[in-house]
């Protein structure tokens, strides 16, 4: 820390009205999406306005949280391995007591440190995270005691993932803990894959991509719902990032799958057409995009209502764009499903296959740019990185797996590049026009700092 | 917040205890069957920390299944559906007397009905591969060498041992492995 920083954090910063102004303004900047909550806290800490925290202690707090979470993962894995390998001599009831004891100890110690005493918040949260891992591990270790088999997607085994998710999800909301939500979403996703999707859809890539796209849209729309609800209940906003990130991963992954040359028919080894005709098969598939559309419509309505209350038109426009993009992608998921079901016996034919592949690539490129844009707009570096990573993988894949020939591949690259350059030029033009309209009002429109 | 946290954690603990009680009840009250374990390809009984068990009823001729119309007995068309096997208990192992699709048939005295699920068989396209949730028998780490020796005997000895799994079957046809026996004697792990 420099001498200047020290002097500001030790009392040389703003006092009285200036301090109140800074606190009020940083809160406004966060709500307007200009800076992240962590950045606001850093700014306040720089002027000793963050409840005794300094910029250095805040950095350490984050590091302690990361170390704690990693430590909890290691301890959880270790306990699972030790118990799974070497405890046959212990009676079953005692094994249950040991499992419950470890789980309860992690939960209670974690809660005491993080939420009661609040002295070791990061370590406490890591211990509660460990408790959730141990709860899931206990479910499967009890199953192992009774030789419950996971072979063939047996329902008794896969149900363990459901109960793990169902038991952890309420904790995520009660504690406003993204770590618990990560556990709940990971277990829930595993359950959906092992219990439903493997049975009906994993036999061919097209229906799986369609399902994954719908699932991603649903998660992303739930993320946006939490973001909107976060303005009234800030605790919900802390959970939105988990839903959004996992949703974006599924959307980009599904579109990446659709960007390849697919046959659009059941492969010879899996002509499981009967799966398509079952009610459960349809329900498991269409439920995701339908739910995503419904949640997005709710988001549109909620966004409009908040606009009337807050008069934040910029934010309303972003919400509208995200909600409509989700609805569009959910409809694409339904379209892919319909296309596969209607052509799965005979295939799509060469022109149809080529058109589907080009559409998949265009959609993926559009989604990558949209994710980067949303990341910039929300100041979420994770989303920007995710979009850039997907773009890089997409580019590399198409570079080595060109559309038929080097000439066609080169033309596709040039065409996509021209589109992006033209898009950038149009955006720059729009920005300049906006600047021109704002310039006369700027001097009187700013609120002067005291 | 503290009350909600305590309630959720309490429910988690109750769930774990209930899960164990549920399995114990099924083990103690279920009807007993001995299923013959058969080798299969790849012929490896040991899969790390558990035995990978296959039974003589794990592969079923699709034509023998009741309630399946002849046009739809292609194994790939039946994948994912439930199959009930009527088993007559006996020594050294129970015998299958019939296979029913989707629903358990009316009970007959002396028969035990075991529920399985049809999965796609990548190796054999003419038969159904049925999973009963009884395909794993977890063994403690210190006994893995003994289990490996048993596997070697199964492959090479002139007198191949008869391996059976003793299973408890509840009223809904769900099975749980109680123990594994070699030539009628339970293995000690």
The overall pLDDT average of chain A reads 80
Structural class of chain B: alpha+beta
Which strand-content bin applies to the residues of chain B?
25-35%
What overall geometry of chain A do the principal axes of the alpha carbons give? globular
- For this structure, the quaternary state is heterodimer
Structural class of chain A: mainly alpha
Care to describe what's here?
- Chain A is an all-alpha fold.
- Chain A has helices spanning 3-12, 16-31, 37-46, 55-85, 92-116, 121-145, 155-175, 178-200, 205-229, 234-258, 273-277, 279-310, 313-343, 350-378, 381-400, 406-438, 442-445.
- Mean pLDDT of chain A is 80; it is low at 1-7 and 441-450.
- By secondary structure, chain B is an alpha+beta fold.
- Chain B is built from 3 helices and 13 strands.
- In chain B, the strands form 3 sheets. In chain B, strands 4-9-8-6-7-5 form a 6-stranded mixed sheet. A 4-stranded antiparallel sheet of chain B has the order 1-11-12-13.
- The longest helix of chain B has 28 residues, at 2-29.
- Mean pLDDT of chain B is 81; it is low at 41-47.
- The interface between A and B is large, with 52 and 47 residues.
């Amino acid at each position: 820390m420099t001498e200047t920083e020290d002097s500001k954090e030790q009392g040389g910063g703003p006092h009285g009205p200036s301090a109140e102004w800074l606190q009020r303004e940083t809160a406004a900047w966060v709500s307007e999406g200009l800076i992240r909550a962590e950045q606001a806290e850093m700014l306040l800490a720089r002027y000793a306005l963050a409840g005794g925290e300094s910029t250095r202690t805040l950095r350490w707090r984050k590091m302690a949280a990361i170390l704690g979470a990693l430590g909890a993962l290691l301890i959880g894995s270790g306990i699972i391995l030790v118990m799974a390998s070497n405890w046959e001599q212990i009676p079953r009831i005692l094994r249950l007591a040991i499992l419950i004891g470890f789980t309860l100890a992690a939960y209670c110690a974690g809660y005491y440190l993080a939420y009661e005493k609040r002295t070791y918040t990061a370590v406490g949260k890591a211990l509660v995270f460990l408790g959730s891992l141990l709860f899931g591990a206990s479910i499967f270790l009890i199953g192992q005691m009774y030789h419950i088999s996971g072979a063939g997607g047996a329902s008794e085994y896969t149900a363990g993932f459901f109960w793990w998710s169902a038991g952890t999800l309420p904790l995520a909301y009660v504690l406003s803990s993204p770590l618990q939500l990560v556990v709940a979403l990971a277990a829930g996703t595993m359950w959906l894959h092992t219990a439903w999707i493997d049975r009906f859809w994993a036999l061919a890539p097209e229906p799986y991509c369609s399902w994954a796209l719908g699932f991603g849209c649903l998660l992303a729309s739930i993320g946006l719902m939490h973001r909107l609800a976060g303005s009234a209940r800030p605790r919900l906003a802390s959970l939105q990032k988990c839903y959004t990130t996992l949703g974006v991963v599924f959307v980009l992954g599904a579109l990446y799958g659709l960007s390849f040359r697919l046959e659009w028919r059941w492969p010879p080894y899996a002509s499981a057409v009967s799966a398509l005709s079952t009610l459960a098969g349809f329900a498991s598939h269409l439920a995701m995009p339908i739910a995503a559309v419904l949640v997005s419509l709710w988001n549109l309505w909620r966004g409009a209502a908040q606009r009337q209350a807050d008069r934040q038109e910029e934010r309303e426009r972003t919400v509208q764009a995200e909600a409509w993009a989700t609805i569009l992608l959910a409809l694409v998921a339904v379209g892919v499903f319909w296309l596969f079901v209607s052509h799965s016996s005979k295939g799509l034919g060469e022109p149809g296959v080529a058109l589907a592949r080009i559409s998949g690539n265009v959609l993926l490129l559009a989604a990558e740019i949209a994710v980067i844009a949303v990341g910039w707009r929300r100041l979420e570096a994770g989303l920007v990185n995710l979009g850039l990573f997907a773009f890089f993988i997409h580019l590399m894949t198409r570079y080595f797996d060109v559309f038929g020939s080097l000439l066609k591949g080169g033309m596709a690259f040039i065409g996509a590049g021209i589109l992006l350059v033209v898009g950038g030029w149009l955006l720059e033009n729009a920005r300049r026009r906006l600047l021109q309209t704002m310039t006369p009002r700027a001097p009187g429109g700013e609120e002067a700092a005291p | 917040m503290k009350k909600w946290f305590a309630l959720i954690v309490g429910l988690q603990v109750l769930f774990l205890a209930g899960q164990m009680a549920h399995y114990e009840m099924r083990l103690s009250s279920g009807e007993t069957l001995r299923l013959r374990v058969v080798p299969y390809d790849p012929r490896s009984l040991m899969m790390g920390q558990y035995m990978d068990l296959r039974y003589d009823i794990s592969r079923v001729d699709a034509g023998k299944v009741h309630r399946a119309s002849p046009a739809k007995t292609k194994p790939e068309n039946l994948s994912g559906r439930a199959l009930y096997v009527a088993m007559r208990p006996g020594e050294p192992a129970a015998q299958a007397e019939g296979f029913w699709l989707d629903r358990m048939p009316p009970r007959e005295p002396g028969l035990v009905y075991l529920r399985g699920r049809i999965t796609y068989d990548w190796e054999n396209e003419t038969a159904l591969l049925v999973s009963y949730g009884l395909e794993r028998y977890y063994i403690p780490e210190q006994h893995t060498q003994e289990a490996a020796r048993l596997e070697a005997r199964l492959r090479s000895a002139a007198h191949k041992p008869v391996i059976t799994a003793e299973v408890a079957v509840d009223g809904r046809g769900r099975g749980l492995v109680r123990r594994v026996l070699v030539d009628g004697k339970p293995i000690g792990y």
